[in-house]
Write a structure and sequence with these properties.
Elements: E1 13-16, E2 19-22, H1 33-37, E3 40-42, E4 45-48, E5 51-52, H2 55-69, H3 77-90, E6 96-104, E7 118-125, H4 133-136, E8 140-149, H5 166-177, E9 182-187, E10 192-195, E11 199-204, E12 207-211, H6 220-231, E13 236-239, E14 251-256, E15 260-267, E16 270-271, H7 276-289
Parallel strand pairs: 8-9, 8-15, 12-13
Antiparallel strand pairs: 1-2, 1-7, 3-6, 4-5, 4-6, 6-7, 9-10, 11-12, 11-14, 14-15, 15-16
The chain binds 4'-deoxy-4'-aminopyridoxal-5'-phosphate (PMP).
4'-deoxy-4'-aminopyridoxal-5'-phosphate binds near residues 160, 194, 197, 198 and 216.
Amino acid sequence: MADVIPFDQRDGSLWFDGKLVPWKEAKTHVLTHGLHYASCVFEGERMYSGRIYKLKEHTHRLFKSAEILGIKMPYAEEEISKACMQACEAQGYADAYVRPVVYRGSEMMAVSAQQTRTHVAVAAWSWPSYFDPETKMRGIRLAISDWKRPAPDTAPVHAKAAGLYMICTMSKHTAESKGYTDAMMLDYRGYIGEATGANIFFVKDGSLHTPTADCFLNGITRRSVMALARLRQIPVVERHIKPEEMSDFSECFLTGSAAEVTPVSEIGPYRFTPGDISRTLMNDYSADVRREVSVVNLNGK
Ligand code: PMP
C-alpha cells in the first residue's frame, strides 16, 4: 500500500460546487453536517472508452437519493451529468471511476439541518478492472456478515446514502480479517440481501435467481445484467431467497458499477463453480459498456 497516493494529495482537477478546481484545494471543514450526521449521498460510475456507462441513470439516482434524504440539489440533472464528463476530461481519462458526492455544509452543527447549503463534487480517478477474465473466473470468497440490511422503515434503503455504508465497512473489515474478499449480508428478515457494495445473483438449472430489491439498492448493473440475460433467453427470477437455498445453486456472481460482473466461488460454507452463465454475462456486460449505444434500455432511471 506504500505506493498508493492518498486521495487528497493527487494531482489534477475535480469539479466542486459548480466549477473545476485544483484537486488538492477541494477541501471541506471538519465541522460539516455531512461528516457528522451522514447527510451525504453519492454515486459510483465508470467511464469506458470516453463514455460513462448509464450516466443518465446514475445522475437520476443521485438526485433521487438526495430527494429521499431531503437534501435540495442546487443544480439540474444535466448539469451534474456534464460535471461527470468534465471531471474525467480534466484528468484526461477515457477509462475511469467517477464519484459524484452531495453533502450538507457547515451552516448548522446539530441534528436539524434546515439551513445548510448543499455541496456537490465530482472526482474521477483511475480504477482498472484488475483481473483478467480467467483470474476472475476463479471466483472470490465471501464471508456471511452478522450485520443485516435494514428494513425500509428503519433506514432510507433505496438511497445510495453514506450512512448505509457504516455496516458495509464493518462487515467487509471482519471478512477481510478472516481472509475473505467481501461479505454477503442477509436482510432484516433473514433472506439473502447483497454484498457490501454489489448485488448478488445465483444460477440454478440454467436460470438466474436474484433477491428482490425491496430493502437494498436496485443496482444499475443488476438491472443491466438482467436485461442482458433476457436477451440470451436466460430466465431471470427475482424472489426472496433463503440462505440454506445456496446449497442448490451452481454458480454465483456479484454485479456493481465498480465490481462489474464478478464470479463468486464461496459464501461461508457454500461452494459454487463459476461456469458458462457467469462467463457469458461477464463478457456480455464487458461488451455492452464499450458500445457506442448500449443494447440495454433502462429509460434513464
Ligand atoms: N449495493 C450496494 C450496497 C452498492 O454500493 C452498489 C454499488 N453502487 C450496488 C449494490 C450496485 O449498484 P450499481 O450496479 O448501480 O453500481
